[in-house]
Specification:
Layout (H helix, E strand, L loop, with lengths): L2 E3 L5 E3 L5 H19 L4 H8 L3 H9 L6 H10 L4 H5 L8 H11 L2 H11 L4 H5 L1 E6 L6 H12 L3 E3 H9 L3 H27 L2 E5 L8 H10 L1 E6 L2 H10 L12 H16 L4 E4 L5 H15 L4
Parallel strand pairs: 3-5, 3-6, 4-5, 6-7
Antiparallel strand pairs: 1-2
Helix pairs in contact: 1-3, 2-4, 9-15, 10-11, 11-12
Length: 301
């Protein structure tokens, strides 16, 4: 127990801190340290997380209760898992967490080698002949996946169609009824089902899946991943060519927002084993490019 001084100036024992108070203090100290280690001013963290500077100041001072939803947003903006901020084990003293951070920032070939060394099964056996196309909408994932699948005799699956089959309703209704969290749970279930039922296929996934750490880690470990990319202008033009004018409708800043999304996800997409740039390429040319990439990398052997 510590000591405090009462109004008479006499020392007396203080009551032990509650578990809740200790947790709040631990989170406050870790958020502050994480922000300082990354050199992020509180104002910038506020902009990235959407959490007000006042709340962040209270959070770092250990004042008030912690909102799980807001803490999750702060953790994401700091590029940390939320459990690191609340666990009793110090994330900066933990060897396992340091290794995880090093793995996360390592180049693709290094990560592949680490997985090969640590995995109880050979990487080739874990991934089989499963190929996953990732990237922002408009890159050409669905068109390429369907064409290359037909050419190579491999099933082509769009993850959203699999989600709809599990849910028994369109993705739009899933989002309306269950929100983003419900959609992500179904997304994870759909991927697990695909892994269990397909040794060979081409899978196209939604562009935002890379922001879900656990789901994306599953893709990287159980699929040969290819980042299908294009320039921002081609992304936008292809979406509009599909008959969807929503990205530009009443939104003059749509292109800048698209560029911002691409920029924020670039490091995540770059974790894929390979990348295919479809900028300025016809669907036929891109199909041949992807077929050659798959053959050269041995993804369907």
């Amino acid at each position: 127990m510590g000591e405090i001084t009462n109004f008479k100036g006499e020392a007396q024992s203080s009551a032990p801190l509650s578990a809740e108070t200790l947790l709040i203090q631990r989170v406050a100290e870790r958020v502050r340290r994480a922000r300082e280690r990354k050199g992020i001013p509180r104002r910038v963290l506020s902009e990235r997380s959407g959490v007000s500077p006042r709340y962040l100041a209270q959070l770092e001072a250990g004042e008030g209760n912690i909102s799980i939803a807001l803490l999750h947003r702060v953790a994401e903006a700091l590029d940390h898992r939320m459990e690191w901020l609340v666990s009793e084990e110090d994330p900066w003293e933990s060897e396992a967490i340091r290794v995880a951070e090093m793995f996360k920032s390592a180049p693709g070939p290094v990560r592949a080698k680490v997985l090969e060394l640590l995995s109880p099964l050979p990487v080739a056996e874990l991934k089989a002949n499963r190929i996953c196309l990732i990237g922002l909408r408009g890159a050409g994932k669905s068109t390429l996946g369907a064409r290359v699948g037909a050419k190579l005799g491999m099933p082509f699956v769009e993850l959203n169609r699999e989600i709809e089959e599990i849910a028994g309703m369109p993705v739009t209704e899933v989002m309306a009824l269950y929100g983003q969290e419900g959609y992500r749970k179904l997304e994870s279930q759909a991927i697990s089902r695909i892994i269990a039922t397909h040794e060979s296929l081409i899978l196209a996934v939604a562009g935002g899946i890379v922001a879900e750490p656990e789901t994306y880690a599953t893709l990287l470990s159980r699929f040969h991943t290819v980042w299908v990319q294009a320039s921002p202008s081609e992304h936008m033009n292809r979406v509009r060519a599909q008959g969807d004018t929503r990205p530009m409708a009443g939104n003059p800043e749509a292109m800048e927002q698209l560029k911002s999304i691409l920029s924020s996800r670039e490091a995540l997409y770059a974790r894929a084993e390979a990348r295919l740039d479809t900028t300025g390429r016809s669907p036929a040319d891109s199909m041949e490019d992807l077929i050659n990439l798959i053959a050269n990398r041995g993804f369907n052997e």
